[in-house]
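Handoff note, outgoing to incoming analyst
You'll be picking up this chain. Sequence as last confirmed:
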Amino acid sequence: MENMLLLSAIDFAFCKSVLLCAVALGMVIFIHELGHFLVAKACGVRCDKFYIGFDFFGLKLLKFKYGETEYGIGVFPLGGYVKMLGQEDNPSETRERISKAKAAREMLEKNADAEVDRALLMSEEEIAEAEKLINDPRSYQAKSVPQRMAIIVAGVAMNVVLAFVAAVWAYMIGVSKLPCELGGVHPGQAAWEAGLQSDDTLEKIGNADVKYFDDISKHVALGNNLENGLDIVFYRDGMPLNASQAAKVYPKKSALSPMLGATNAVTPVLSYVTPASPTFAAGVELKGGDVLIGINDREIRTNLDYQKAMYATTGENAILKFVRPTKEAQKKRWDALRNLKTGDIAGRVAIENEFRQGGEAVEVMVEPLHARHFGVVLTMGKVQAIRTSENGLEGAGKAGIKPGDKIVGLEIMTENGPQMLRDLDPVTLPWLVKRETKRVVALAAENTGTIPTLNFAILKADAETEEIVAVEVSQNVFSSDNYFFGCGELLPEIGLTYEILPVVSAVIPGTEAEKQGVKPNFALKSVTLAYTENKEAELTENSKKIAEQFKKPSEHVFRDGMLSWSVLYHNFMLLYPVKGTTATVVFADPEKGTNNEITAKLALQEYTDVFVYHSDLVFESKQIFIKKGLTGALALGGAETWNALTAVYRMLGKLGSGQVSAKGLGGPVLIAQVAYSAAREGLSNLLMFVCLISANLAVLNLLPIPVLDGGHVVFLLWEGITGKAPNENLVIILSYLGLLLFLGLTIFVFGLDLGFISRF
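Most recent structure output, in case you need it:
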């Protein structure tokens, strides 16, 4: 009985994924060492050991001997090795050392007082052993340069073969890829600035055709001459077929590498609802596979429809209308999408239209989300970016507002007439602009020919003077909650983002921040959000989900030169439950000296009359399913392998130039995590990961660094060209330098993986 209970507690899916992950990573190492082993055997070299993992200090998981070779698995999973008889890279140096040792011995035998270099002396046993290694026909040293070169390169070659076989196998099983469509654009980033939006399909980046979403990073993060901009050709939903548009984007390196600033495309089929959100709190259970078809009186067919409708209802109750298809309908849709030909847009639309028909109707009334704070008003920064639409600059750009300018006032309507509101709260400004836009648009509708505008007080960066600027506004806009490092706060009605500086400009009266002595000019250094479950309240299923979602505190550290308040606000503060959440904020008091830190524990609070846009529905990603026969799989597998190989070289080049940050590198921990995630998603995903990691290992092993295969290749090339091995002392020095470089890199990536070194 106890054994049965133990078995029932085991997560077999987890165990299966871990096992597949271990097999995949072990296979990458095994196949590399197998290459060395097989070619060494073919060249007649005696192989004493074949190990996966290192058996330092004799520690091993298992071993057995077959023939003359000991096979085993070491306890240190950092690679593997093949131990060959006489494996030294300088046989000619060994011959020279033996010759000098014999000469020194002869001199001493003739004259015991002769002066000889004692370092040259070798015992008869040492000389005999060295000669054995050179003269033994099964010694590595006895082999020709081409043979030794083949042994060294064989590991890399086998990794390339493994990458190719894994990719071909994956395409024969069937591979899911993300189409090169945009799901959302990060405010203030390149895609947003250029006027791109949700559901746009990219066709070209520069001169390269793009099909899949991962092509974007290849041509943007690793692109050339980014300062001159990248030309993008794209197709927008609703345009005539084969009619495309062009835009020029200027990728920004906001974090680890230059980026377009966009997420992958989604379709309004529900995956899950974010815990503690307004939709989650509405009390109606929504399920994965539910199809969102309407919000209030708006029909929803695309993600852009959803973004526009949700933004339009910000501050109002929204009725979300779903259709819940049957399990049979969901399976039919999935099977149809798997069999859909790549690029068949009309076919996809037909499948989705059929899926929306019938099924159970489900409605949810969602209350608006209040904007939040923890007792302080932050400092308004400069205008960060201006958006261009397909018809030219949007409102802010038309009015002459430029990056570097600063919004210092907004004219609002009060009971006493128009009033220029100063000392703006940058967190509440988007709501004020939205509210006032609704008012002036309604007035313009009553007066035919009137263009709705809002008056902003703008401090111009070039002249350092203030101007009152009338800015054209629009309600037909979408907003975003896809914020990343470097994103500014968004005013979609005028096409502008601005910086929010993590410096206190005012303290809200009566709040805990005021009581704890927080003052204007205090700078935020870090914010840690933590949720504490109410133990006295009834533990419902919803409260369990909330507790599970927010069981770990979220720390956000502010760094100089990196815009990140919007990341904290939209990705964390708006997600956490208001009740039960505290913010531990570390401030820096500029009036104090070096010990200027002040820590305050502040409650997360809501503005009573200010609302904010936020999406709490997580939708299903659009996918393309590719399954080929052997011929097609060979072609796609070859292309996949070539892309993986060349991408590593390009990445190394961009690391050297500083275009890509070294903090984006991953070590063994991150590799294992990615492998585990791939294993959970299915065999084809795991095989594609094996293709990528095996290609990476092949390229990195060929780098001309001593201790790596590439370093040995360089030494062998020198010997082959000159007929003489490199100087032994030089080889030793270079080998130690290579080892130090390798160990330093290992420590660095482990530090990144384990969080000892921050990636941002």
